[in-house]
Amino acid sequence: MSAITTPSWRLDDDSPSDTLAAQGFVRLTPATSARLADARAPGPASTAGPAGTAGCWAGLAAHWADLPPDEHLRDGGRYRFRRHASLLLSDDGTRVRERVQRAHWQPTDYNALHGGFERWFAPVRDETLADPFFLGLVIGLGAACATALGHVLPFVEVHQFRIDTATGIGRPTPEGAHRDGVDFVAVVLVDRIAVRGGETRVFEAGGPTGLRFTMTEPGTTLLLDDARMIHETTPLQPDGSAGHRDTLVITWRREGFLDPD
Length: 261
Prior knowledge:
- By secondary structure, this protein is an alpha+beta fold.
- The protein has helices at 16-23, 30-40, 53-61, 126-129, 132-149; strands at residues 25-28, 80-89, 96-100, 155-164, 184-193, 195-197, 199-204, 210-214, 221-225, 229-233, 236-238, 244-253.
């Protein structure tokens, strides 16, 4: 890992919510991500113990096997596959109250390439949303963000992404360094096979300070305060043969979904 940072930026995850509140981001290990999910997953817990962490992420990765192509890429690429869902949480943020049928939308202020129009993606499958570990990530990571903010974040969008290198270069963030127009963002590495590149870069929204690292281990997670931080991921290249990088991106908002006026 290479990093450009200031001495005040912490890279550990001993106190995720405190670190997130203090500096605008926190990087979580797979074990911490799984622990936060396991604490909030419906049904019996204990899947995220030391021996079970790898199994959690392998099981999650199975839900990325059939993502359809993203039909909205304006750079003409065929490298991105995805599913999307909008969820409304309960008032206390502990369960999904409703799945909301709506398009994904961002203003051009946040996404100059793909903003300004409604994008309807293939929906996240019901069996994926019913997976206890998947739900645990949505609720558990959201709870860490809510603690940092001091308020429940009930408006949630989940995105399953696969960036594929079968046709050459794959671009996880073709729009470049950006904010998403939400309150908090999680980028969870689900799987990474036969690719090079994909460096994660995080910058202060109001200054030059930045950090860069490459997420290689499934379950590594970046939590971001979207108002304070800008982020991007560099392009991917095949490493010997066609490969892919799978991520789960979750966003949370306090005051409604991000919709056209």
